[in-house]
Design a protein that fits this description.
263 residues; Spore Coat Polysaccharide Biosynthesis Protein SpsA, Chain A; globular
């Protein structure tokens, strides 16, 4: 049984999938993890499935699952968590906007049992070459962070990042309480983890945008859905606080990493 299961939800990823896997495997091997990669295709209509077949032939520690119809990113990640058997389970976006070395560091934090949940906190560095492709994403990201903290009264810096790792036994009961099966899944898993008293840390990482990846952001629709979901989830946080509940604040990253590395 592997010690780490890494879930890779895939939808329309053909442009960068194979190159990204090569980079990821290199870092995982450098850290000497006993790992498995669980790719789950969410009914892509491009050549993602062909790329996954090629990857499965090339690498030993790979499992590939296929959703019969498009069920959403959150539901896809949930399927992977329940299919996994490792002590540590997590998911990443395969465009590697969170660099592989940082992914490995997140795994290390949970594997050494210094936290129950380790997630990235995206830091955007804008350059002229990427500005036209990034500016709307940066505005939406930071705007959502502000609204999320205001509506839901939490202290996380970035709930939506596509790199999160968990103690599997502790996250399984929480996964069953998540209602949204799409992008708001990330916010729910972070807030519910805090409500349940799990130890959570956010690690600052530089966001790396792959220019060859077509955006899936639909600004008007996505903004409407996020606002709706924030309002709906607010009722759950209200009830939690009225009953005397208190969310765990995220741990200080520098202190946690020092503990993990034995400094």
């Amino acid at each position: 049984m592997p010690e780490v299961s890494i879930i890779v939800p895939c939808y329309q990823e053909e442009t960068h999938l194979e190159n990204s896997v090569s980079e990821l495997v290199f870092s995982l091997q450098a850290f000497k993890f006993d790992y498995e990669l669980i790719f789950i295709d969410d009914n892509s209509i491009d050549n993602t499935q062909l790329s996954l077949q090629s990857i499965q032939k090339k690498y030993d520690r790979v499992r590939v699952l296929y959703n019969q119809h498009n069920i959403g990113r959150g539901a896809t990640v949930e399927r992977g968590i329940k299919e996994s058997t490792a002590k540590v389970v997590g998911f990443i976006d395969i465009d590697l906007c969170t660099p592989p070395v940082n992914i490995a560091m997140l795994i290390q934090l949970v594997l050494k049992d210094v936290v129950d949940v380790a997630t990235a906190n995206r830091i955007y560095k804008l350059q002229m070459a990427t500005l036209p492709f990034m500016i709307h994403r940066v505005i939406l990201s930071y705007g959502y962070r502000i609204l999320s903290r205001y509506f839901l009264w939490h202290k996380f810096m970035d709930t939506e990042t596509g790199a999160k790792f968990f103690d599997r036994q502790k996250i399984l009961p929480i996964v069953d309480k998540i209602e949204d099966k799409h992008w708001f899944w990330d916010t729910e898993v972070m807030l519910l983890s805090a409500m349940e008293g799990l130890r959570v840390v956010e690690m600052p990482t530089v966001y790396v945008r792959r220019l060859n990846k077509p955006t899936t952001v639909k600004i008007v629709k996505d903004v409407f859905l996020y606002l709706k979901n924030l309002w709906v989830f607010r009722a759950r946080t209200n009830e939690f606080c009225k009953n005397g509940g208190k969310m765990n604040a995220p741990y200080n990253y520098e202190q946690i990493w020092s503990k993990c590395s034995g400094e």
